[in-house]
Amino acid sequence: MKKRELESYCGDVSQIFGVQPCILDNGRDKGTRAYLVDNGAGITCTILRDKCFAIPSLKFKGLNIGFLCKNGISSPEFFQEEGTRGFLRNFEGGFLTTCGLTYFGTPTVREGQPYGLHGVISNTPMENASAEVLWKGDDACIEVRGQAREGYLFGPNLVIRKKIEIPVGGNLIRMHDTVENKGFEKEILMLLYHFNYGYPFLDESCSIYTNYNFIRPRDSGSQGRLDHLDSFAAPMSGFEEVVAYRTMSDKAVTQGRSLVWNRKRQVAVRMTLNADQLPVMNEWQSPRAGDYVLGMEPGTGTVGGLEGTEKAGLTEYIEPGEIRKFDITVEFLDDDELIREAVSEFSKEEN
Predict the structure, then answer these.
(1) What pLDDT does residue 348 have?
(2) What b/e string do you get for 64-86 counting C-beta neighbours within 10 Å, with b at 16 or more?
(3) Neighbouring residues of 5: CB distance < 8 A, sequence distance ≥ 6
(4) The listed CATH number (3.50.50.60, 1.10.455.10, 2.70.98.10, 3.40.50.300) that belongs to domain 3-350
(5) Nearest to 282 by CA among 237, 240, 241, 233
(6) Where are the domains of the chain?
(7) Model pLDDT for residues 282-329, shown as the tens digit of each residue
């Protein structure tokens, strides 16, 4: 329907789609600024302005896609960077948490400086944030944008600028981010997109596909379970997480892809990205009862942290004044034919 025709049916088109700023006020989320998004075609989500545009909840046509940790949404005021538990106490999981910018993954201490789990950017409020519906002719798109900084005296000065596009009437989300080194020294760059899938989209009927096909386990506990990375289990009490680092065996392949398909519900989530920008797909499986989550986490390095990424020869740097780009598209599919076409692409590559 054309824009003016649509407007003739509505006093305000926000009855069909739009974005609404709000402030959360319930327990640990108190005071957290957020945007409520509805694209009019089944994508509804919450985007946290005060947590680097984390997406704690996302539904597609009423079906919950992401994972919400038992913490619920936690305001950044509760964040304490202390080893592993400090981050986890403030980690909602959600559909997406952005981690980095100069470190993420396993905590470590270097030259007397502690580096906690997954860095600080995920608990950093966005500056100059905006959210609006933009029209291009008769096509509308919900656009959320802003920037956040990681920096301190005598330390790095990195700025991430984030833009999230959700076309009205569509079935996808596009993310276009840049990281700029505004300092005057070369810095380590570590950026992780912590995508998380949860129930009811995630259950034991799910199949997992990715063309990041060279696999290494994070630890000995994960080593013996790598044969099960393409499926997911029913909840199990006390299950220890499995973590694998996946990269491209063929470095000439520049388009990275993943697909999670729930066969029972006939819904799939497809992620497409640039493997030159994000060379590692970290896969996290936790079918633990109460902590039931699958993470497909593209990043510049491994969730083994600074040391694990160095050991794997994957450490990346950003030069003074340099700007790096990161682009990800996430699609939600519920058409049987489209899903099977998407699955068949992975079978063709294997052959």
Answers:
(1) 67
(2) bbbbbbebebbbbeebebeeeeb
(3) none
(4) 2.70.98.10
(5) 241
(6) 3-350
(7) 999 999 999 999 999 999 999 999 999 999 999 999 999 999 999 999
